């Protein structure tokens, strides 16, 4: 006990905030979703366990929504043989990193935007569509990271 009292006296005299020392940095929701399912802290800090469970549920729901949207887009593409052939011709002229950038951006948009993008690609000849895709890729890469 004397050490605790002395520590408070010393801590107070050099400007250390005891409350700040006792606080643990709160991880972001994205970080919580990637944490292991069970941690020792879950049994001690029920608020942390609750936030982590909610973050994991939200991440799982977002993943399911993305998978559903991608499946719907793939079904729409496969249903149109002309679009499939057009996309294959475009893909053959793009580099692998360009395709990855473009697919990542398209996957992250809402369904209406995906439809508009596919309609724009389909309306252009292959050379024009490739140029359009490269312009989109350039714009994506030049955006500041958020």
Q: What does the model show?
A:
It is a single chain. The longest helix has 34 residues, at 46-79. This protein has nine helices and no strands. It has helices at residues 2-13, 18-22, 29-34, 40-44, 46-79, 81-91, 96-107, 111-123, 126-142. It is mainly alpha-helical and 146 residues long. Helix content is 79%, strand content 0%.
Quick description:
With 146 residues, the chain is an all-alpha fold.
Major sheet: none
Distance between the termini: 49 Å
Number of helices: 9
Coarse structural class: mainly alpha
Please provide the ordered H/E string of secondary-structure elements. Answer: HHHHHHHHH
Shape, principal axes of CA atoms: elongated
What would you report as the Rg, rounded to the nearest angstrom?
26 Å
Beta content: under 5%
Low-confidence stretches: 3-7, 9-23
Number of distinct beta strands = 0
Report the helical percentage: over 70%
- Mean residue pLDDT: 80
Q: What's the quaternary structure here?
A: single chain
Question: Secondary-structure map with pairings?
Answer:
Elements: H1 2-13, H2 18-22, H3 29-34, H4 40-44, H5 46-79, H6 81-91, H7 96-107, H8 111-123, H9 126-142
Descriptive keywords:
single chain; 146 residues; mainly alpha; 0% strand; elongated
